[in-house]
Give the backbone structure.
Amino acid sequence: MKAFFLQRSGRERWLILLYAGIALAWWGTSLLGRSRAHLQLWQSAQQEKAAQELWLANRDDIMARVATAGRSLDPAQALDSAQSFAALNAMLKGLNADLGSQRTDRTEQFALHSVQVNIRQAGLPALLQFYEKLSARAPYLGIDQCVLATDRANSGLLNANFRIYSVEVVAPAK
């Protein structure tokens, strides 16, 4: 390789060195980008591990709180899937809204019903009024997830996507 390089003219040597330098710089930046991505992934995994260890360390306290909260819920105020759907329809009256299909997750003590609600072209006061109505039914009805965006056609209006849950107390099987 050295003989090949030394047999070249001075101009060719400079070009070979220039191209080798460009290739090395290109490879180095690519390596740096991949290394950064791996470092961020590793740091994210470490943070997730720390959070999971915290949850596991406080498991007994969390389970005690869940049991206490379960005893404090009034089964008469809890909503089944049909009641929660009807309550949401009443709260959404006057808004341009779509209700998605309901999904139910069951445990021994509770049934958690969730539904996707999409509100289009609503003013902020109308959304706040809906939020107030929903908050009045807490903890039996609440917001699990919320995404707000301005409407493309009219920047004074908002589009909102909610995932709303309702809690039903399940009677223990005898």
